[in-house]
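Lecture notes, unit on binding sites. The following record was shown on slide 14. It pairs a sequence with zinc ion.
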Amino acid sequence: MRHVVEFSGPILTGPETIRHGLWSVDGVLTFTKPVEDAAQVLPGWVMPGFVDAHCHLGLGPSGAVSQDEAESQARTDRDAGTLLVRDAGSPLDTRRYLRGFAAEVEPDQLVDTVRQQARDGDGWVKLVGDWIDRDAGDLAPSFPAAVVRDAIAAAHDEGARVTAHCFATETLDQMLDADIDCIEHATGLQSRHLPRFVEQGVPIVPTLINIATFPEIAAAAEAKFPRYAAHMRSLWEGRTERVRAAFDAGVQIFAGTDAGSVIRHGRIAEEILALHAAGLPITAAWTRQPGLPGNGWEQAGCARGSGPTSWSVPKIPGWCRRPSPGWHMWCWQGLSYAEQRAE
Ligand SMILES: [Zn+2]
């Protein structure tokens, strides 16, 4: 006898379309009601899986973790609804960055290292564009502008794209000048940058749940680096306005958690809600995925049970009205699944 699971809640098949009636028959999803009774009935909303555009699988608070731990991080993300991650796990930097997190190179080694990572990687190289310069006591670009330009050109030459961790304003100018492909955090965003992001087609991954930790970073740095602390606080203060301004200007914004170092895995729904709280319509916070079509998961074969797909679709009315910890996310057969739990 076939094993049947029934999904009795609304099924999101597009940003604004809802169907009812979805079944799993021996693990294959179908919209056709099977003859057998369901062994299990799952209420709640069903939607395609999320993409976490900034996620570090294999990194823990003090650097690399074991293979088992990396796998458990991936499972945690999956169980929280993420079915595709863009791994931001091999950042490049000078010795200013945290130990164990990056290939730490001096400026004269950057171009060669980026070229090598472009060859070794799967299409992306990440630069750490700025970090605290302890001599200056403030954020500062990690590399001279000319070196960044050459390094990005080298990656492009190898067919790879480049993204960069950027907190400070001047780092954004440097990266845009160098023809960067994506920016992480972008906390230094100014209105002068907006048309450049749009014209150059450079998306931003704001990682708002990470930016939320800036006050703690500032407090820890206050005694030794007061200028840096004040800088971090001012970047934190502008976080939601900036995201909203970028969205209004037409900049592409993707949800990414920065899980793996200080941010724990499995928080993609929180990041989506943070983007929504910053002013993005829930459909935008949810559906914008790097380099992927925005919807159409039925066409993607999900309903035929061909495994995980990477589309994210809005909108859970309950979430729109009242984002609440009472909603629990999980993932089943390539679908994200939201269930309202009694507190
Ligand atoms: Zn990161």
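Take-home: The chain has two domains: 4-47+323-332, 50-300.
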